[in-house]
Amino acid sequence: MNRDEIMAVIPHRPPMLLIDEVVEIEPGRRAVGLKHVRADEFWVPGHYPGNPILPGVLQIEALAQTGAVALLSQPEFRDKVPLFAGIDGARFRRPVRPGDTLRLEVEIIRLRGTVGKGRGTATVGGQVTAECELTFALADPGEVRP
After folding, report:
1. pLDDT in tens, 14-44
2. Which of 15, 100, 102, 118 lies at a C-alpha separation of 20 to 30 Å from 43?
3. Under which EC number(s) is this enzyme classified (predicted)?
């Protein structure tokens, strides 16, 4: 899936759309996405000046978006809004910098109704950069109020 195909499935939009491609998908079970980390991204000037490192929270969000693609690719969840309900065991192992390609692998390990948990691992060149378990809920758009 390219960015346009991803945006047809999940509600995220630039600058907060943090995945560029989905290279593997088993709807409802798992997905593998890629983020090509660029030097012109919004966070580069401030994190950190002269030594840019992709914030860990954005790696976690990119994993969550990858998991959302896996879930929202199922017809029964089409048009749902994915929401964070928790992040467990988050660990950051190695910096991610502009020029890196972040591989985002997410497996859905539990789903009951519209609440579940996924396990995510981000890597660059085969080295783990971040890992965590994500708890999520899928809501109807009208249930998410400003």
Report:
1. 999 999 999 999 999 999 999 999 999 999 9
2. 118
3. 4.2.1.59
Are 85 and 96 contacting, i.e. CB atoms less than 8 angstroms apart?
no
Q: What are the tokens at 27?
A: 């709807």
Three-class HEC string of 25-47? EECCCEEEEEEECCCCCCCCCCC
Contacts by residues 4-8 (CB-CB < 8 Å, ≥ 24 positions apart): 6/69
Give the active site residue among 25, 28, 34, 47.
Answer: 47
- Give this prediction's pTM: 0.96
How many helices and strands (H and E) does the chain possess?
2, 6
Give CA–CA dist 10/141, Å, rounded: 12
Quick check: 125 and 60 in contact, CB under 8 A?
Answer: no
Rg (Cα) of the chain, in Å, rounded?
15
AA identity, residue 36 = H
Does 36 participate in catalysis according to the annotation? no
Phi, psi of 91 (to 5 degrees): -135, 140
Cis check: omega of the bond before 15, within 30 degrees of 0:
yes
Q: Are 84 and 27 in contact (CB under 8 A)?
A: no
- Cis peptide bond upstream of 48, omega within 30: yes
Could you give the CA distance from residue 144 to residue 3 in angstroms, rounded to a whole number? 24
